[in-house]
Specification:
The complex is a heterodimer of chains A (121) and B (116). The termini of chain A are far apart. Chain A is mainly beta and 121 residues long. In chain A, the strands form two sheets. In chain A, strands 2, 4, 5, 6, 9, 10 and 11 form a seven-stranded mixed β-sheet that branches. A four-stranded antiparallel β-sheet of chain A has the order 1-3-8-7, with no helix packed on it. Chain A is 0% helix and 53% strand. Chain B is globular and about 40 Å long. Chain B is mostly beta strands. Chain B has strands at 4-7, 10-14, 19-25, 32-37, 43-49, 55-58, 61-66, 71-76, 85-95, 101-106, 110-115. Classes of the chains: A mainly beta (121), B mainly beta (116). Chain A binds chain B through residues 31, 40-43, 45, 48, 50-51, 53-56, 88, 90, 94, 96-98, 104, 106-115, 117, and chain B through 30-31, 33, 35, 40-45, 48, 50, 88, 92, 94-104, 106-109, 111.
């Protein structure tokens, strides 16, 4: 099973709302990622979790709050978003270097979910 | 800072023709990925290139990696309309507080349109 699932597929929210995006994988991957993608642009990394611990935060505003409750689940909590936050939010997972010690070998290919199309009104 | 440059950014080609997309990157890396994205969809993995001289082929697409030149190419042979999509290359770098996470840096993407 090489599938990453994301819910919901579409989300429309007001600037005062609180909502959450969910991501799930059952590939035994220990690294999970959130990306934001605006139209006609490449994905931009937001957060990385490694072994359920936050490993990378790419200076993302605090209105985005990630959570990794266990190795299979990744959430992104949204609060007081701005219209410019409207985008496609992609979740991805991969094996993690920590599983193989300090010697890097093999592919750490990231598998992407279908994304959540977020519109902030 | 790792920079990844793709060219061309836009490519319009006729069915049956051949063309190459180029991906240059600025610092040493031994892993390069090619992804395809259809409009409104997620990223689909095409190729994983892990070593210098790696060449992989799938159908009408062939990807290669020259780590010494820091260059990867995606060659399209006898293009068909179904290949119309945006193609991204991405180069990885180890990052994070635990040093164990893969951080992908994407090129800007090449929007390919194949015309009948």
């Amino acid at each position: 099973d090489t599938e990453v699932t994301q819910t919901p597929k579409h989300l429309v929210m007001g600037m005062t709302n609180k909502k959450s995006l969910k991501c799930e994988q059952h590939m035994g991957h220990r690294a999970m990622y959130w990306y934001k993608q605006k139209a006609k642009k490449p994905p931009e990394l937001m957060f990385v979790y490694s072994y359920e611990k936050l490993s990378i935060n790419e200076s993302v505003p605090s209105r985005f709050s990630p959570e990794c409750p266990n190795s299979s689940l990744l959430n992104l909590h949204l609060h007081a978003l701005q219209p410019e936050d409207s985008a496609l939010y992609l979740c991805a997972s991969s094996q993690d270097l920590g599983q193989r010690g300090t010697l890097r070998w093999g592919s750490y290919e990231q598998y992407f979910g279908p994304g959540t199309r977020l519109t902030v009104t | 800072e790792l920079k990844v440059e793709q060219n061309p950014l836009f490519l319009s080609m006729q069915e049956g023709k051949n063309y190459t997309i180029y991906c240059n990157y600025s610092t040493t890396s031994d892993r390069l990925y090619w992804y395809r994205q259809d409009p409104g969809k997620s990223l689909e993995s095409l190729f994983v290139l892990l070593s210098n001289g790696a060449v992989k082929q799938e159908g009408r697409l062939m990807a290669s990696l020259d780590t010494k030149a820091r260059l990867s190419t995606l060659h399209i042979t006898a293009a068909v309309h179904d290949l119309s999509a945006t193609y991204f290359c991405a180069v990885d770098m180890v990052g994070g507080t635990q040093g164990g996470s893969e951080k992908l840096v994407f090129g800007k993407g090449t929007k390919l349109t194949v015309n009948p």
